[in-house]
Fold this protein.
Amino acid sequence: MGKVAIVTGAGSGIGRLVALGLIRHDYDVVLAGRAGDRLMHTCLEGARSEHTLVVPTDVTDPLAVRHLFETVETHFNRVDLLFNNAGAFSGGSPVDEVSPEDWRKIIDVNLNGAFYCAQAAFKAMKKQRPSGGRIINNGSISAQVPRPNAVAYNTSKHAITGLTKTIALEGRPFGIACGQIDIGNAATSMTASMATGMLQADGTMRPEPTMDAANVVEAILFMAGLPLDANVPFLTVAATKMPFIGRG
């Protein structure tokens, strides 16, 4: 049996591409996300269905996350890798105009959901024999430098950095490595609007360059492929010409 990886948000975007990359590299891959039809499409595209498990999961529901990890334990009996990727973006409103509902929606997916999955993975990796594994959290450039009018998203991604550091610290005795990838402007459906213009810190609207999302897949495969005595705590991969260094 190969290494077992769980990818959340595996039905689209970065999650789908990373899942397919892991499948190509002979991982047994568990595809998690809310849209079962999209997960099945990823599974069929990977063309190794006997090594791929589809588990529809709402990461904001702790019971659904527990079911996900119980299913993985039943089928594979261990977890070697979690790519904690499921997330949502919300922007367009200044701090004083964000509704409580919009705030809770983003925090629930991006932070609470990430915690529920990381906690369940930590428990599994701690008790399995041999113990250990790797958790890779999907942060964002906005975990380092915020975009204007995106307070809930920015806050959630800054909090992911604290989650990553805490898991890396507490995972040491059990061989659990935790790292974070901060991605800037990978070309996916989520970033399509960047071609028409994004609000900048000076108040102007300007198009932003993007990069091939395949670069993100290669970065994740590098992080995942390290032995557990080595870790990449933080890795930033960004479009070369995007306004990141010097933003604001």
